[in-house]
Amino acid sequence: SRASSAVLARDNYPLYIRSSPTENELKFHYMVHTSLDVVDEKISAMGKALVDQRELYLGLLYPTEDHKIKYGYVTNSKVKFVMVVDSSNTALRDNEIRSMFRKLHSSYTDVMCNPFYNPGDRIQSRRAFDSMVTSMMVQVC
Hints:
By secondary structure, the protein is an alpha+beta fold. The protein has one domain (3-140): Beta-Lactamase, CATH 3.30.450. It has 3 helices and 6 strands; from the N terminus they run ββαββββαα. Strands 1, 2, 3, 4, 5 and 6 form a 6-stranded antiparallel β-sheet that branches. The mean pLDDT is 81. Belongs to the TRAPP small subunits family. Sedlin subfamily. Keywords: Cytoplasm, Endoplasmic reticulum, ER-Golgi transport, Golgi apparatus, Transport.
């Protein structure tokens, strides 16, 4: 099974990308960037509801032949999380994915709180963040 996760800055450049297996990384970069228009459309469509309900989970973005760019999430500061999984994995439920995104958001917040991290810089291999993303991808696969 294949899974990938990305954290994208407010201006849509990658802060963190993790792909398993790693040979899919370039293809995953492409899929993430093609999904950004859908993410922006969903954010615009939700508009005030997004702020009022603090609903950060965007749900299904769009499917492709061999993957589902099924999952999107946006923080209050407009940082975006995208998860791509194998289309063969249909056992995942929305509440499980929401929970994974909340954990990812929490780990991202921990990175942001590090006094040595400059906001907007690429998230280098931070042990806690990497291990959380890896365990999340194992759950998805």
